[in-house]
């Protein structure tokens, strides 16, 4: 850590900090049979990272999952389904993204009574609206983001201690607002990852569809949730 701090401050240290991109190599270090076994257990990843750092003397550890072939949909989608079932989830919200592809694959791995909600951003006047043709919810990106930021500002939302939350908390701080002459309104932009913020945003919306605790959302949504 001292080497990293010195490098950030432009100070001298005993040597330049070295970051080694050793991730999948942990399988061999632990003598495991496959990448699948390795990434199924966080303790394996942590143990291998510490062993390799001690063995080769570099200055960092990685906490990445789903790397290399493990990041392919054939591995990730079944893993998502497994964890949804493990924790007893009954509803899932998924970004519509490029269409039905991966969402359709995930649906087939879940029980028939599971509520599966897809959504996408668009330029609409309403806060959130149901798209009957596309069988998905459409949201006003700026409005739903502003709603969440306002909840944070008024202490409606609570967070973990920063030391526990920092890794994903930075996603909230990576978002800035600016005025768009084309749209004639404020818009949000980001130059670094902001996934954790949008995860929280969609979680609130999906939750409100099942439990109408957010009047503005439930009023805009006269539709009941449909099972798969």
Distance between the termini: 50 Å
**Class from secondary-structure proportions:** alpha/beta
Please provide the ordered H/E string of secondary-structure elements. Answer: HHHHHEHEEEHHEEHH
What is the mean predicted local confidence, pLDDT?
79
The tally of domains stands at 2
**How would you describe the shape?**
globular
Largest sheet geometry: 4 strands, mixed
Unreliable runs = 215-228
Rg (C-alpha, Å):
22 Å
Strand content: 5-15%
Q: How are the strands ordered across the major sheet? A: 1-2-4-3
Number of strands: 6
Question: Can you walk through the features of this model?
Answer:
- The chain folds into 2 domains: 2-70, no CATH class; 72-219, no CATH class.
- The protein starts with a helix and ends in a 9-residue tail after the last helix.
- The strands form 2 sheets. Strands 1-2-4-3 form a 4-stranded mixed sheet. Strands 5-6 form a two-stranded antiparallel sheet.
- The protein has helices at residues 2-9, 26-30, 35-39, 42-56, 73-86, 101-107, 141-153, 162-173, 195-210, 215-219, and strands spanning 91-95, 115-122, 128-131, 136-140, 175-180, 185-190.
- The protein is 44% helix and 15% strand.
- Residues 215-228 have low confidence and may be disordered.
- The longest helix is centred in the C-terminal third of the chain and has 16 residues, at 195-210.
- The chain has 228 residues and is of the alpha/beta class.
């Amino acid at each position: 850590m001292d080497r990293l701090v010195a490098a950030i401050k432009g100070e001298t240290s005993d040597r330049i900090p070295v970051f080694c991109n050793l991730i999948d190599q942990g399988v061999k270090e632990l003598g495991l049979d496959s990448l699948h076994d390795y990434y199924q257990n966080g303790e394996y990843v942590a143990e291998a990272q510490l062993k390799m750092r001690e063995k080769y003397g570099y200055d960092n550890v990685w906490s990445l999952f789903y790397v290399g072939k493990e990041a392919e949909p054939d591995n990730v989608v079944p893993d998502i389904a497994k964890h949804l079932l493990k924790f007893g989830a009954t509803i899932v919200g998924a970004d519509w993204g490029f269409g039905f592809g991966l969402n359709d694959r995930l649906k087939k791995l879940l029980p028939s009574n599971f509520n599966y909600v897809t959504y996408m951003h668009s330029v609409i006047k309403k806060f959130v609206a149901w798209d009957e043709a596309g069988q998905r919810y459409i949201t006003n990106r700026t409005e739903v983001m502003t709603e969440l930021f306002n909840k944070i500002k008024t202490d409606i939302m609570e967070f973990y201690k920063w030391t526990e939350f920092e890794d994903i908390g930075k996603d909230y701080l990576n978002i800035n607002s600016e005025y768009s002459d084309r749209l004639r309104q404020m818009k949000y932009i980001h130059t670094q990852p902001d996934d954790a913020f949008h995860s929280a945003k969609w979680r609130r919306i999906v939750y409100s569809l099942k439990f109408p605790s957010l009047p503005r959302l439930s009023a805009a949504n006269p539709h009941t949730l449909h099972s798969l």
